[in-house]
Amino acid sequence: MAGETNILKLIKGMTPVLNPGEYVFSTVKNINEIDRKETLFEFKEKEGTTVVLEKSKAEKLNLEFEYVAAWITLTVHSSLEAVGLTAAFSKTLADCEISCNVIAGYYHDHIFVDKKDSKKALNALIGLSNNKNIK
I need a labelling partner for 26 at 20 to 30 A (CA). Which of 12, 69, 123, 130 fits? Predict the structure, then answer.
């Protein structure tokens, strides 16, 4: 099933959900050093493999991290070919002085924000989705 590409439908239907927990970004030189069932996301870079996982799991694995994040999922099924959704929500968050790290899955966009900004970010995204001035 193809995802939505219409930017207005995407914004109005994004229905952001704050997932419970704390998440971190770390890196490993050899991905086989850890149990891959522990990771939510992996991305191979020339310097090492970036992994995103629950903070408690990273601590048990003795992985280093600097940034503790909250994880917000936009529940609308967005197409990987959709234009403008990332720009719209990242601008909204930037206007609130909230940094975001975005991972696009096949079905949904996943936004990681500083844990201390989680409720503010969720409210900003809900406000964007409910904005009657979006046409």
Answer: 123
- Asked whether residue 2 is assigned to any structural domain, the reply reads no
Q: What's the pTM value of the predicted model, to 2 decimals?
A: 0.92
Say how many domains are in the chain: 1
| Domain-located, residue 135 | no
Residue 47: burial class (beta carbons within 10 Å; 0-12, 13-18, 19+): exposed
Running along the chain, 135 residues long, what does each successive block of 10 average in pLDDT?
A: 88 96 95 88 94 96 96 95 94 97 95 98 96 64
Place of tokens 């900003």: 124
- Residue 48 domain-assigned (yes or no): yes
18-43 burial code (b ≥16 CB/10 A, e <16): beeeebbbbebeeeeebeeeebbeee
CATH code for the domain of 30: 3.30.2130.10
Residue 1 lies in a domain: no
Q: 75: alpha, beta or left, given left = phi > 0 and alpha = psi -120 to 50? A: alpha
Nearest to 22 by CA among 60, 56, 51: 56
Concatenating the DSSP letter of every residue in 11-28 gives: HHH--EEEEEEEEEEEEE
